Amino acid sequence: MSEHPRLKAVPGGLDEGARSARPMREPLWREALGEQLRSLRQERGEKLTETAGRAGISPQYLSEVERGRKEPSSEMIAALAGALGTSLGALTRQVAEDLLRYRPVPAHHPALSPMAISPVLLAA
């Protein structure tokens, strides 16, 4: 880490190694979909305008989808898949496989602790 001449590292602070050791947040579906769409588009060597034109959407909207900012309808996802030369099923499978690579960060919530889950007896 290159330090600014007047700034010093804080003892006990996080360094680059500690940040990367933390588990990554599981991405949302729209984020994983966007990454996959961008990857497919770039593999084809296409610009946003080319892919968006074939899918019938604006390049701005495609950009937002690729960045995980917008959640497109299933019809829009199918149009994008077709514009990128793949099927909706193949695109969905790839996104699902990408999502399965992440280990979710364990929730530390009191309601999820084993002691908070107890059987309940209901009497009529």
TrEMBL record:
Listed GO MF terms: DNA binding; DNA-binding transcription factor activity
Region ranges (Disordered): 1-24
Domain HTH cro/C1-type: 37-91
Gene Ontology terms: cellular component: cytosol
Cited Pfam families: HTH_31
Record has DNA-binding as a keyword: yes
Signal peptide: none
Keyword flag Acetylation: no
CDD domains assigned: HTH_XRE
Entry superkingdom: Bacteria
Record-linked SMART domains: HTH_XRE
Keywords from the UniProt entry: DNA-binding
PANTHER family assigned to the protein according to its UniProt record, in alphabetical order: HTH-TYPE TRANSCRIPTIONAL REGULATOR, METHYLPHOSPHONATE SYNTHASE
Protein name: Helix-turn-helix domain-containing protein
